[in-house]
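Example record for the data management plan.
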Amino acid sequence: MLPEHWMWFGRLAVKTVLWRYDVHVHGAEHVPAQGPVILASNHMGYLDGPLLFATSRRGVHCMVKESMFSGPMGFGLVRMGQINVDRYHTDPLAVKQALRLLRGSGVVAIYPEGARGRGDVATTKGGAAYLALVTGAPVVPVACLGTRKDGASPEAHPPIGSRLDLVIGPPLHVDAVPWPRTKRQVAAVQDTIQEVLSEHVRAACDLTGQTLPSPPLGG
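Corresponding structural encoding:
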């Protein structure tokens, strides 16, 4: 299992940062209190990961891009049990770590879109689908809203005092499929996750009054 020695400290530190914002969490009861869980979130702003990590009722192991694992931040991410993942190539080590956590009844957060964008889940990758097919862990859709303002860079933080909403939806249950799993099976579950998550984001916008940002420049 990945270490969690500093997870409590990291959650406290991130909550201290988020205290400067108007944070609202909706639907926390949809995350199962026990057992493996895959949190599948849209991704549009720098604060998506910290918001999900700090507000969850359970300890969360997020799939974090490898460029973040450098210097003091990288040291902290490792101590808090976060998962270093190569977004551009198949990463067997990251997959094994995530599967080990789920088989140990842990919580893994993944961003099916693969990178920050509008957060509308127009495209996805198959990582969440594969993890769900292997373990049978429920996939819980998550919408992070307000983490990037319209016209701002995906690297930018929202202005202090901005409203941030984390909206959690009912779990999507996926039956585990024994090896060998086909690309067609993964693709079918991937399509379902994309449909559920994109609809959840739209519903979350209606619920909160938040809107998604315009496409990034050049995107």
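Summary line stored alongside the record: The chain has a mean pLDDT of 90.
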